[in-house]
Design goal:
3 helices, 15 strands, about 15% helix, elongated
Protein backbone atom coordinates (compact mmCIF):
# COMPACT_ATOMS: atom_id res chain seq x y z
CA UNK A 1 0.00 0.00 0.00
CA UNK A 2 2.87 2.41 0.79
CA UNK A 3 4.39 1.81 -2.66
CA UNK A 4 0.98 2.21 -4.28
CA UNK A 5 0.30 5.55 -2.63
CA UNK A 6 3.75 6.82 -3.50
CA UNK A 7 3.30 5.84 -7.12
CA UNK A 8 0.01 7.70 -7.47
CA UNK A 9 1.28 10.87 -5.85
CA UNK A 10 4.43 10.67 -7.90
CA UNK A 11 2.49 10.37 -11.15
CA UNK A 12 0.35 13.42 -10.52
CA UNK A 13 2.75 15.48 -8.45
CA UNK A 14 -0.13 17.55 -7.12
CA UNK A 15 -0.97 16.45 -3.61
CA UNK A 16 1.18 19.01 -1.80
CA UNK A 17 -0.45 21.95 -3.55
CA UNK A 18 -4.06 20.73 -3.66
CA UNK A 19 -5.28 22.98 -0.86
CA UNK A 20 -4.18 26.11 -2.75
CA UNK A 21 -6.05 25.21 -5.92
CA UNK A 22 -9.62 25.84 -6.97
CA UNK A 23 -12.01 22.96 -6.26
CA UNK A 24 -12.82 20.68 -9.18
CA UNK A 25 -15.29 18.30 -7.55
CA UNK A 26 -17.68 17.93 -4.65
CA UNK A 27 -18.11 14.90 -2.40
CA UNK A 28 -21.70 13.78 -2.94
CA UNK A 29 -21.68 10.78 -0.58
CA UNK A 30 -19.40 8.91 1.82
CA UNK A 31 -20.03 5.39 3.13
CA UNK A 32 -17.70 3.47 5.45
CA UNK A 33 -14.11 4.27 6.33
CA UNK A 34 -12.91 7.08 4.07
CA UNK A 35 -9.84 9.11 5.02
CA UNK A 36 -9.32 12.58 3.63
CA UNK A 37 -12.82 13.84 2.87
CA UNK A 38 -16.31 14.25 4.31
CA UNK A 39 -19.76 14.62 2.78
CA UNK A 40 -20.13 17.95 0.91
CA UNK A 41 -16.41 18.73 0.92
CA UNK A 42 -14.96 20.46 -2.12
CA UNK A 43 -11.78 18.85 -3.42
CA UNK A 44 -8.99 20.21 -5.62
CA UNK A 45 -6.90 18.37 -8.18
CA UNK A 46 -4.25 16.32 -6.40
CA UNK A 47 -6.34 15.54 -3.32
CA UNK A 48 -5.52 12.09 -1.93
CA UNK A 49 -8.39 9.94 -0.61
CA UNK A 50 -7.94 6.53 1.03
CA UNK A 51 -10.86 4.12 1.23
CA UNK A 52 -11.35 0.97 3.28
CA UNK A 53 -12.02 -2.28 1.35
CA UNK A 54 -15.80 -1.80 1.30
CA UNK A 55 -15.93 1.97 1.73
CA UNK A 56 -17.45 4.16 -0.98
CA UNK A 57 -17.11 7.78 -2.00
CA UNK A 58 -19.10 9.57 -4.69
CA UNK A 59 -17.43 12.50 -6.46
CA UNK A 60 -19.21 14.95 -8.76
CA UNK A 61 -16.85 16.82 -11.11
CA UNK A 62 -18.09 20.36 -11.66
CA UNK A 63 -16.66 21.02 -15.14
CA UNK A 64 -16.51 17.63 -16.82
CA UNK A 65 -19.84 16.48 -15.26
CA UNK A 66 -18.44 13.03 -14.48
CA UNK A 67 -20.05 11.43 -11.44
CA UNK A 68 -17.86 8.72 -9.94
CA UNK A 69 -18.78 6.03 -7.45
CA UNK A 70 -15.51 4.65 -6.07
CA UNK A 71 -15.24 1.61 -3.80
CA UNK A 72 -12.01 0.78 -1.99
CA UNK A 73 -8.45 1.67 -2.92
CA UNK A 74 -6.62 4.96 -3.20
CA UNK A 75 -7.95 7.93 -5.14
CA UNK A 76 -6.15 10.98 -6.46
CA UNK A 77 -8.49 13.68 -7.69
CA UNK A 78 -7.77 14.93 -11.20
CA UNK A 79 -8.95 18.01 -13.06
CA UNK A 80 -11.77 16.13 -14.85
CA UNK A 81 -11.77 12.63 -13.35
CA UNK A 82 -9.99 10.58 -10.69
CA UNK A 83 -7.06 8.19 -10.82
CA UNK A 84 -7.99 5.07 -8.83
CA UNK A 85 -5.64 2.29 -7.75
CA UNK A 86 -6.66 -0.85 -5.89
CA UNK A 87 -10.36 -0.04 -6.06
CA UNK A 88 -13.36 -0.02 -8.37
CA UNK A 89 -14.74 3.08 -10.09
CA UNK A 90 -18.05 3.43 -11.88
CA UNK A 91 -18.19 6.64 -13.90
CA UNK A 92 -21.23 8.20 -15.60
CA UNK A 93 -21.91 11.57 -17.24
CA UNK A 94 -24.67 13.59 -15.63
CA UNK A 95 -26.26 16.85 -16.81
CA UNK A 96 -24.52 19.82 -15.21
CA UNK A 97 -23.56 23.39 -16.00
CA UNK A 98 -20.20 24.76 -14.85
CA UNK A 99 -21.68 28.26 -15.21
CA UNK A 100 -23.89 27.63 -12.19
CA UNK A 101 -21.34 26.39 -9.72
CA UNK A 102 -18.68 28.90 -10.70
CA UNK A 103 -20.81 32.00 -11.32
CA UNK A 104 -19.06 35.04 -9.87
CA UNK A 105 -20.98 37.81 -8.12
CA UNK A 106 -20.09 40.25 -10.93
CA UNK A 107 -21.28 37.83 -13.61
CA UNK A 108 -24.47 37.22 -11.66
CA UNK A 109 -25.26 40.95 -11.40
CA UNK A 110 -24.63 41.46 -15.12
CA UNK A 111 -26.80 38.45 -15.98
CA UNK A 112 -29.62 39.64 -13.73
CA UNK A 113 -29.57 43.15 -15.19
CA UNK A 114 -29.62 41.89 -18.79
CA UNK A 115 -32.46 39.48 -18.05
CA UNK A 116 -34.59 42.13 -16.36
CA UNK A 117 -34.05 44.55 -19.25
CA UNK A 118 -35.17 41.95 -21.78
CA UNK A 119 -38.21 40.90 -19.77
CA UNK A 120 -39.20 44.54 -19.23
CA UNK A 121 -39.01 45.20 -22.99
CA UNK A 122 -40.87 42.05 -23.99
CA UNK A 123 -42.43 39.96 -21.19
CA UNK A 124 -42.83 37.05 -23.62
CA UNK A 125 -39.21 37.09 -24.76
CA UNK A 126 -36.90 34.23 -23.93
CA UNK A 127 -34.13 35.28 -21.53
CA UNK A 128 -30.49 35.23 -22.59
CA UNK A 129 -28.50 32.08 -22.01
CA UNK A 130 -28.34 31.71 -18.26
CA UNK A 131 -26.72 29.22 -15.92
CA UNK A 132 -28.92 26.14 -15.80
CA UNK A 133 -29.81 23.73 -13.02
CA UNK A 134 -30.56 20.17 -14.10
CA UNK A 135 -32.35 19.27 -10.89
CA UNK A 136 -35.58 20.98 -9.86
CA UNK A 137 -34.71 20.80 -6.14
CA UNK A 138 -31.60 22.99 -5.79
CA UNK A 139 -28.87 22.45 -3.25
CA UNK A 140 -27.90 26.02 -2.41
CA UNK A 141 -24.60 26.97 -0.81
CA UNK A 142 -25.08 30.12 1.22
CA UNK A 143 -22.38 32.25 2.79
CA UNK A 144 -23.54 35.21 4.82
CA UNK A 145 -27.06 36.54 5.04
CA UNK A 146 -30.00 35.51 7.19
CA UNK A 147 -32.63 34.98 4.50
CA UNK A 148 -32.53 33.25 1.12
CA UNK A 149 -35.23 34.35 -1.33
CA UNK A 150 -35.89 32.57 -4.62
CA UNK A 151 -38.65 33.84 -6.87
CA UNK A 152 -39.73 33.10 -10.41
CA UNK A 153 -39.31 36.06 -12.77
CA UNK A 154 -40.81 34.69 -16.00
CA UNK A 155 -44.16 33.96 -14.40
CA UNK A 156 -46.12 34.69 -11.26
CA UNK A 157 -46.87 32.59 -8.22
CA UNK A 158 -43.56 31.13 -7.02
CA UNK A 159 -41.77 32.71 -4.10
CA UNK A 160 -39.62 30.99 -1.47
CA UNK A 161 -38.27 32.76 1.60
CA UNK A 162 -35.93 30.50 3.58
CA UNK A 163 -34.60 31.59 7.01
CA UNK A 164 -31.00 30.44 7.20
CA UNK A 165 -30.90 28.91 10.66
CA UNK A 166 -28.56 26.23 11.91
CA UNK A 167 -31.04 23.36 11.80
CA UNK A 168 -31.98 24.07 8.18
CA UNK A 169 -28.40 23.93 6.91
CA UNK A 170 -26.15 20.95 6.22
CA UNK A 171 -22.51 21.49 7.19
CA UNK A 172 -23.57 24.97 8.29
CA UNK A 173 -23.78 26.34 4.74
CA UNK A 174 -25.95 24.18 2.44
CA UNK A 175 -29.72 24.43 2.13
CA UNK A 176 -31.29 21.46 0.31
CA UNK A 177 -34.69 21.96 -1.32
CA UNK A 178 -34.97 18.17 -1.75
CA UNK A 179 -34.53 17.56 1.96
CA UNK A 180 -37.51 19.83 2.68
CA UNK A 181 -39.61 18.34 -0.12
CA UNK A 182 -39.53 21.55 -2.17
CA UNK A 183 -38.93 22.00 -5.89
CA UNK A 184 -38.90 24.65 -8.58
CA UNK A 185 -40.74 24.44 -11.90
CA UNK A 186 -38.81 22.84 -14.79
CA UNK A 187 -38.30 25.42 -17.53
CA UNK A 188 -38.66 28.40 -15.17
CA UNK A 189 -36.32 31.36 -14.74
CA UNK A 190 -35.54 32.45 -11.18
CA UNK A 191 -33.92 35.20 -9.19
CA UNK A 192 -32.07 34.17 -6.02
CA UNK A 193 -31.36 36.92 -3.49
CA UNK A 194 -29.00 36.56 -0.55
CA UNK A 195 -28.33 39.84 1.22
CA UNK A 196 -27.16 42.31 -1.45
CA UNK A 197 -26.29 39.56 -3.93
CA UNK A 198 -28.61 38.58 -6.77
CA UNK A 199 -28.30 35.57 -9.07
CA UNK A 200 -30.46 34.69 -12.06
CA UNK A 201 -30.65 31.09 -13.28
CA UNK A 202 -32.95 28.72 -15.14
CA UNK A 203 -34.17 25.21 -14.43
CA UNK A 204 -33.89 22.80 -17.33
CA UNK A 205 -37.24 21.77 -18.82
CA UNK A 206 -36.50 18.08 -18.17
CA UNK A 207 -35.22 18.56 -14.60
CA UNK A 208 -36.44 16.03 -12.05
CA UNK A 209 -37.45 16.78 -8.47
CA UNK A 210 -35.82 15.28 -5.39
CA UNK A 211 -32.21 14.38 -4.56
CA UNK A 212 -30.82 14.13 -8.09
CA UNK A 213 -26.99 14.25 -8.54
CA UNK A 214 -25.66 17.19 -6.57
CA UNK A 215 -23.33 18.48 -9.27
CA UNK A 216 -26.36 19.08 -11.52
CA UNK A 217 -28.38 21.06 -8.96
CA UNK A 218 -25.71 22.86 -6.97
CA UNK A 219 -26.11 26.63 -6.75
CA UNK A 220 -23.25 28.44 -5.01
CA UNK A 221 -24.30 31.83 -3.65
CA UNK A 222 -20.98 33.04 -2.24
Amino acid sequence: MRILIGAIVGLLGLATSAAAQSPVAIVEDVQGKVDGVEFMDYVAAGKLIKLGPKATVVLGYMKSCWRETITGGVVVVGSEQSAVQGGDVQRIKVPCDAGVVQLSDREARQSAAATFRKLDTDPNASPRKLPTLYGASPLVEVKGGDLLVIERIDGAGEHYAVPLKGASLSRGRFYDFAKDGRSLTPGGTYLATLGSRKFVFTVDASAMTGPTPIVGRLLRLQ
